[in-house]
Task: inverse folding
């Protein structure tokens, strides 16, 4: 059996080293795998027939050259180092494995000796600090003698018995040993008095009481963990989203994540409306209008009229009085006068301020979501250099269930496909002639797309004018669905035409294809909504002078939302299910249709824009949108699993969520906010319904409230000042808008700065690796020169002798030193070396 090398590195200890010990946290990371690594290395050495022994002086092998080099087994074209160089490499911190159990016990025994020294105990014989063994320097049989380990264990137990209980428990918790070993050490280190006290309990209780208390504590702890796990599992569609991402990739998953985000936005918008408008008015209903209520026919579910007209669903139901105050309306008008308001809760103010507050909260949430999504998706390293990380570091070893492991396997596989497809597309190039042809085809396709959008806009405008010229009577309620049906048909048919035109472009990148489709569909839907807004506020207000035009606008938006959901179901049925059946039964093809990400995302944005436009005229429209989104999720998920296939060209949707949130913020939310601001400030409300009747504008309700506050006394004089300088003055609005834009800009700049810093750090890591390779090569050359100059048959010293150190620092006369050559090769790294 070969004797282990007694390699000692003479390093002068500083006074600071006497009071420092290796951290138990650092040792625990390597100690657990020590025994397993020893077995693996022993098996490998037994197979290879390699013995890591100290070379005898003058002994040579069949592969030993005269210069003292020993050829070690290694891969082809690999640099073969000498034995002395291998010793230096084995002494590097990265080549060490960890400490054995005996070394750990010995170390903590020394620590306990120092702790006992503080309480004036006689000093025991100190045991030297154990060095970190290396497999390349020592023989593979590293287990110490059983007798020596038992002696160290006995001494450690003796020292632990003399420590206070709290200090003893703290030291045992810090030891990098197994739980069973720690439990044995704790039991052995307890004194007879402590054991008796442990049997009686910490406060002299009987054993049964102590066991009952421990059982209660464990039960409460288990209950808390169960509640946390339940809250984690209650996240909406947690498993469904993982399943979609694993089978169809991040591109399809981005649609469902965006739908989930819209659900949260609508819930946030609905809560203040329910609390301060709908709930309060339902608790204090206004007087019923004269005449009998219309009967329910079922058509109201589509039109939103009939029995739904005089409910909390629409603007006209809400009163213009102060609640909790008796109101005696005149017999003719059926309304309260302005003088009736005097008690705390004014319904006009609550209606105006609640809608404004809900929109302000939504704006803040949108800006934060957009900035956060931008920082997450555009960070450095999101797509580059993650292949190795995905292959070697993506698997979660805590997953034990078969279903969860299969789902994780699908996720990793799909993610690797997307990364490889993205990497292959970056390597492609196009010739000059191909670029010219590509630009000409795309220009023609864009002209046709814009022409289609213009035709749809003219059709909507013409049909809306026809509806104004031929008004619909109350008996013909079904005819009110004509304009929403035309709008939904155009929104459904135009995207299919855009998809046919996009097939002529033949985009190389699926990401660019989706962005172009989103842009074309967005232009179509926003232009149509602009025509409808002009139709409602510009034409309908003048046509419905003596009627409640706010109720009509709310019903029109309700019809659009409901019919949009119906057409989404029809599109899913005929566009995916029927097409799959035709393809499989008639065409005998196994290819299923792909999920249209652009069209479906624009449908979500369109429906959310309708909801924001109708909040002022129908406060319960967000609740309808929530129900619609829930149904759309399950319908789309079922259709996706049964009728669709994964994209033929996988692509990584790293920035897709950011693009969707941006489109939701600027064209959609900004347009809805402008529409509502114009309705509040410029349009005269109806004189027969709603909380703002008999006012010149909805905004005038705030002025009336300020005048009442000025007459109330000096105690509330600060409220009119706030209204005059913060609400009526436009400067705070511009200031808040500028601050929001500044926050977005600063966040973008911070992300750019982080990207630059990360790039510099990556470059520095690369340079550090090159420096290490260079220094190892110089060490190899220095030892080669030393062994050539030494007599044949004598082995080089295992340590760094003085001549070798001189060669590294100053070099031999006439030969460049390692530092000189390193400075010549890396002039920009001189300070780091």
Result:
């Amino acid at each position: 059996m070969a004797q282990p090398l007694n390699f000692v590195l003479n390093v002068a200890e500083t006074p600071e080293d006497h009071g420092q010990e290796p951290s138990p946290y650092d040792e625990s990371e390597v100690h657990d795998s020590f025994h397993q690594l020893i077995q693996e290395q022993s098996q490998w050495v037994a197979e290879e027939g390699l013995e890591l022994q100290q070379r005898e002086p003058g002994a040579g092998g069949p592969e030993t050259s005269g210069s003292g080099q020993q050829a070690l087994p290694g891969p082809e074209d690999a640099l073969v180092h000498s034995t002395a160089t291998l010793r230096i490499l084995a002494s590097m911190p990265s080549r060490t494995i960890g400490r054995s159990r005996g070394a750990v016990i010995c170390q903590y025994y020394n620590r306990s000796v120092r702790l006992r020294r503080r309480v004036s105990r006689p000093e025991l014989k100190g045991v030297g600090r154990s060095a970190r063994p290396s497999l390349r320097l020592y023989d593979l049989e590293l287990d110490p003698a059983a007798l020596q380990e038992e002696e160290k264990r006995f001494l450690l137990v003796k020292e632990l018995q003399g420590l206070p209980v709290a200090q003893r428990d703290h030291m045992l918790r810090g030891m990098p040993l197994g739980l069973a070993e720690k439990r044995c050490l704790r039991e052995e280190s307890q004194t007879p008095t402590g054991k008796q006290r442990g049997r009686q309990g910490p406060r002299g209780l009987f054993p049964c009481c102590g066991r009952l208390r421990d059982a209660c504590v464990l039960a409460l702890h288990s209950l808390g963990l169960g509640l946390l796990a339940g809250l984690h599992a209650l996240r909406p569609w947690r498993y469904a989203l993982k399943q979609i991402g694993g089978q169809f990739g991040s591109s399809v998953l981005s649609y469902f994540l965006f739908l989930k985000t819209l659900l949260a936005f609508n819930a946030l918008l609905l809560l203040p409306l329910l609390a301060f408008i709908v709930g309060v008015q339902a608790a204090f209903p206004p007087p019923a209008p004269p005449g009998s209520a219309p009967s329910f026919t079922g058509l109201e579910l589509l039109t939103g009229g009939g029995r739904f007209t005089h409910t909390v669903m629409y603007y006209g139901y809400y009163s213009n009085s102060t609640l909790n105050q008796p109101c005696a309306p005149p017999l003719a008008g059926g309304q309260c006068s302005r003088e009736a308001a005097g008690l705390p809760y004014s319904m006009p103010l609550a209606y105006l301020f609640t809608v404004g507050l809900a929109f302000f909260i939504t704006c803040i949430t949108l800006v934060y979501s957009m900035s956060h999504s931008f920082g997450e998706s555009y960070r450095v390293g999101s797509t580059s250099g993650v292949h190795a990380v995905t292959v070697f570091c993506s698997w979660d070893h805590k997953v034990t269930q078969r279903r969860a492991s299969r789902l994780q396997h699908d996720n990793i596989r799909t993610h690797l496909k997307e990364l490889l497809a993205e990497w292959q597309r970056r390597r492609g190039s196009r010739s000059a002639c191909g670029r010219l042809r590509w630009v000409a085809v795309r220009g023609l396709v864009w002209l046709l797309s814009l022409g289609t959008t213009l035709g749809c806009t003219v059709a909507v405008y013409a049909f809306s004018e026809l509806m104004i010229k031929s008004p619909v009577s109350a008996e013909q309620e079904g005819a009110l669905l004509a304009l929403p049906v035309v709008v939904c048909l155009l929104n459904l048919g135009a995207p299919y035409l855009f998809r046919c035109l996009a097939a002529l472009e033949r985009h190389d990148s699926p990401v660019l294809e989706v962005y172009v489709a989103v842009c074309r569909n967005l232009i179509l839907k926003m232009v149509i909504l602009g025509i409808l807004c002009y139709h409602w506020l510009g034409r309908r207000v003048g046509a419905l002078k003596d009627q409640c035009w706010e109720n009509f606008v709310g019903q029109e938006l309700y019809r659009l939302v409901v019919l949009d959901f119906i057409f989404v179901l029809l599109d899913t049925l005929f566009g995916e299910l029927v097409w799959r059946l035709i393809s499989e039964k008639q065409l005998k093809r196994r290819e299923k249709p792909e999920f249209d990400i652009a069209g479906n995302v624009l449908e979500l944005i369109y429906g959310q824009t309708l909801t924001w436009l109708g909040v002022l005229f129908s406060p319960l429209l967000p609740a309808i949108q929530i129900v619609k989104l829930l149904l759309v999720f399950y319908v789309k998920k079922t259709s996706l699993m049964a009728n669709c296939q994964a994209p033929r060209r996988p692509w990584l949707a790293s920035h897709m969520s950011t693009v969707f949130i941006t489109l939701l913020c600027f064209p959609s939310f900004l347009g809805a906010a402008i529409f509502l601001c114009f309705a509040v400030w410029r349009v005269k409300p109806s004189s027969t319904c709603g909380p703002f009747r008999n006012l010149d504008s909805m905004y005038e309700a705030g002025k009336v409230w300020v005048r009442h506050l000025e007459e109330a006394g000096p105690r509330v004089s600060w409220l009119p000042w706030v209204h005059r300088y913060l609400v009526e003055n436009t400067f705070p609005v511009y200031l808040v808008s500028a601050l929001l834009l500044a926050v977005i800009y600063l966040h973008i700049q911070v992300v750019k700065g982080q990207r630059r810093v990360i790039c510099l750090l990556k470059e520095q890591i690369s340079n550090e690796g090159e420096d290490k390779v260079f220094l190892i090569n110089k060490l190899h050359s220095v030892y080669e020169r030393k062994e050539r100059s030494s007599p044949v048959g004598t082995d080089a010293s295992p340590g760094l002798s003085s001549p070798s150190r001189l060669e590294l620092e100053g070099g031999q006369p006439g030969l460049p030193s390692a530092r000189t050559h390193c400075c010549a090769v890396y002039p920009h790294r001189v300070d780091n070396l």
